[in-house]
Amino acid sequence: IKIIGVLTSGGDSPGMNAAIRSVVRTCAYHEIECIGIYRGFEGLIEGDFKSLSARSVNHIINKGGTMLKSARSKEFRTDAGQQKAHDNLVNAGIDALVIIGGDGSFTGGLVFNKAFNFPIIGIPGTIDNDIFGTNFTLGFDTALNTVVEVIDKIRDTASSHKRLFFVEVMGRDVGHIALNAGVGAGAEEILIPEEDLGLDRLLESLRRSKKSGKSSSIVVVAEGDKIGKNVFELKDYVEENMEEYEVRVSVLGHMQRGGSPSCFDRVLASRMGVKAVETLLEGKTNFMVGILDNKITLTPLEKAVKGKTEINKELLRVSDIMTT
Ligand code: F6P
């Protein structure tokens, strides 16, 4: 392997820049060339490439977003799109690809690998922490810190007005952000897709918390929660059924994806980048780099894509106890 390409794809996440930097510098360390591919698979199809030296990634470790930009490419799902992408890679002399992204990006990478037998390695970059084969994805820790900081602020105003807030957080169809940030911010209730609390138990829990003398209540709701109502409908429902509450809603949205990565995400990204490049140099392909029990690991990419992450049961129990 003489030239490695690197791209970021799907929803950006804090730590992606730190991972790009690590991939570029590991290539430089092993004296091979690294080419940055802009706008994910879109840029692969359009040949939007730029050679990256160790110095071209100075001072990006602390930056949110991704310097290579990102996209969700429809054209890459077609045979013609993939053929164009492959032609561009061959013309640029790129021998292998590091894909930084979530499971959608890995699925695209796997299809591409099957079609052209092109070596690829994945680095999990998403705030959702929903990838099998790693305890942490890049950006999850930073997003949690962002959410907790914001909920702390919401708490100030909630308790000044004795209000109940429904705070919707991201996470697609999993509740890892909601559960962790909810516990971290001392939420009164946490609604996640993995556990259907039910509307009756929600009301019961809110009544109990009011009765116990709390001056405010925060309910963290995962965007993929299956209680059957969105945060605005929940507000109406609670106001109809519980006169004692004045309710407000806060949907945190994309602010959760931005900001300077935490130290944890920067260190993790640095470790993953080194492993990704060195795995390719060992002649291996179709793996995802992960972290399990604080060890950098490799999981077959196919397993990473097919497997499902599980909600942390012990943390769920902690959350139940903390909300008493
Ligand atoms: O996967 C990351 C994520 O931020 C999810 O939490 C969210 O559901 C989704 O992406 C939002 O996607 P978009 O930025 O395309 O609206």
TrEMBL record:
Regulation (activators, inhibitors): Allosterically activated by ADP and other diphosphonucleosides, and allosterically inhibited by phosphoenolpyruvate.
* Residues in Phosphofructokinase domain copies: 4-279
Pfam families reported for this sequence: PFK
What metabolic or biological pathway is this protein involved in?
Carbohydrate degradation; glycolysis; D-glyceraldehyde 3-phosphate and glycerone phosphate from D-glucose: step 3/4
Provide this UniProt record's keywords sorted from A to Z.
Allosteric enzyme, ATP-binding, Cytoplasm, Glycolysis, Kinase, Magnesium, Metal-binding, Nucleotide-binding, Transferase
Q: Which cofactor does it need?
A: Mg(2+)
Class of this enzyme = transferase
Tell me the Gene3D superfamilies matching this sequence.
3.40.50.450, Phosphofructokinase domain (3.40.50.460)
SUPFAM superfamilies according to UniProt? Phosphofructokinase
Q: Where does the UniProt annotation locate this protein?
A: Cytoplasm
This protein's assembly is summarised as: Homotetramer.
Q: Which HAMAP family does the UniProt record give?
A: Phosphofructokinase_I_B1
* Physiological role: Catalyzes the phosphorylation of D-fructose 6-phosphate to fructose 1,6-bisphosphate by ATP, the first committing step of glycolysis.
The record's NCBIfam families line, in alphabetical order, gives: PFKA_ATP (TIGR02482), PRK03202.1 (NF002872)
This one is known as ATP-dependent 6-phosphofructokinase
